[in-house]
Amino acid sequence: MIKPISETRALFKLEELRDSFTKMIRERYEAKAKPCDLCDSPGKCCQDEHYVNVRITRLEARAIGAAIQDLPSELIERVRDRTTRAISTFKLDQADANELKTFACPLFEAGIGCLVHNIAKPLPCIVHACYERREDLPPDELLENAESRIARLNARVYGDRSLPCPIPVAIRNWSRFISY
Length: 180
Ligand code: SF4
Ligand code: SF4
Fold this sequence. Notes:
binds iron/sulfur cluster, two-stranded antiparallel ribbon, mainly alpha
């Protein structure tokens, strides 16, 4: 039996979880990775349509929606356009639940970077960095455990119906800043 929780309370818990996860990754692992400030093409990882395959829950999409809603209107419009384009270009609506489709992330803005960097960044993006040595990477279980906790929170708010979706589909379906 799942104990229900309000969306507001779940968003607060999600923020706490994300903050402590970010702190742990920064303190224990990030120093061993290449600093993004030194990247020859910052954000190429976010725009690589053959690489990004991040899926998020409805709850995470709501957090992203709240963050985007606070941006200037022209920026919101650009995110909306990129989202629509990504869904159609990479046929993300046609992905079956087990297929990890890849896409260029619509939340990346040239000259700014990830638009949800400090407030609603998905956990796989928090973990991602360019490590030279495989043994320096954060163990997979850290991400798996944290994602399971988010999945449980999501289920407590919405039930089991909303499985994680590719970022563009999730923000189109569940974020209020995009209305189709
Ligand atoms: S994670 Fe790697 S590719 Fe992405 S911006 Fe940082 S250094 Fe560049
Ligand atoms: S959510 Fe942010 S960090 Fe993750 S792929 Fe998109 S732009 Fe990059």
